[in-house]
Amino acid sequence: MEGLYYCTIQQLQDFGLERRVISEDVTVTINIKVVYEEPRILSYFPTEKCVVKCGQCLTARVEVIPDPTITFSWRHNSKLLSQYTTNVLEIQNVKDENAGTYECLVSNEYGEVSRSFQFDIKKCPTAKRALIVTNSVYQNDKLNAPHNDAKTLFKCLTKYGFTCTLINNLTAEDMEREIKKFFQSIKEKGAFVLFYFGGHGCMVNNSLFMIGCDADLGEVKQNQGVYTTILEDVDTCEPLLFISMLDMCQVSNNSLKGKQSNKKWNCNVIQCCATSQNRVALEHVGSAKENSVYMKHFEKIINSKENMTFLDMIRAVNAGVDEETKGQQRPSVTSTGRSDFHLSDPIQPL
């Protein structure tokens, strides 16, 4: 409190029997000045741009020096959100339109401060569908891995909520028909769609060629395989994410005519190849004969790295395959559009 204060210093002598003043009175003047100031934000969350999945909760908050006169208001893309009047913003079951910039304004009679937050809303799939095609029995060859790979992939994907269709040993004509039929069967726009092929394949003038089981591998004809450009038809079902996985060789075959593509995808795409151009895709290394090398590593990663994005999962698979085969088989992956999707992303029906 403001005013004059006096201080007298005394000393006790002879065990407290005598009190003696040993100083003069000291006068202390205290002037208290009240400082009025605008609100001060102590902390805030989130501290950087945040991605929230559709259907989840969007939360932001600020912490300030306590002051009963403070008021809070929130804006979204400059539009006032009149229902939010505390230091916490919480929006349940977010949708696409909830993306953007949120601003918290903290005010008292002496001023105003603000803090902005950026939120990106990540869409979730309306469905999860997969077509798994494996060719293991050819006219003059039999592969051991594709049938086992199909069962392994089916088990892995159903764990994440995929509805899977398995088809084995198709001719080129049947393969083309079944792929188109599969895409046409997907009625949910915004789905996760995955296509897998395991079997013999080759590279034709930079075009990938999936060989049907009716082919003579000694002399593959143009009508005995399907170019992967057929997968571009997936656009007809307007997926949120399309994943193609090709577990086949890419050794060049110059006797066939290639089919080039200048496709501009209208959806997010992740394209995975078990090997790279002019390299083989191995069935097994050493004594592990149940799955192909690629599928063995895929199963390991997908069951142990559930929090990874799918793209990061595939990168980990590729690194494992490259290391095990000592560079003989070098998988590749490319992505177009967003790549932050997880196989575990929840289904949000339309």
UniProtKB/TrEMBL annotation:
GO terms for biological process: proteolysis. Residues 130-201 form the Caspase family p20 domain. Transmembrane segments: none annotated. GO terms for molecular function: cysteine-type endopeptidase activity. SMART domains: IG (SM00409), IGc2 (SM00408). Residues 322-350 are annotated as: Disordered. Coiled coil: none annotated. InterPro entries: Caspase-like_dom_sf, Caspase-related_regulators, Ig-like_dom, Ig-like_dom_sf, Ig-like_fold, Ig_I-set, Ig_sub, Ig_sub2. It comes from the Eukaryota. Residues 39-120 form the Ig-like domain. Residues 328-338 have a biased composition (Polar residues). This is Mucosa-associated lymphoid tissue lymphoma translocation protein 1. It comes from Frankliniella fusca.
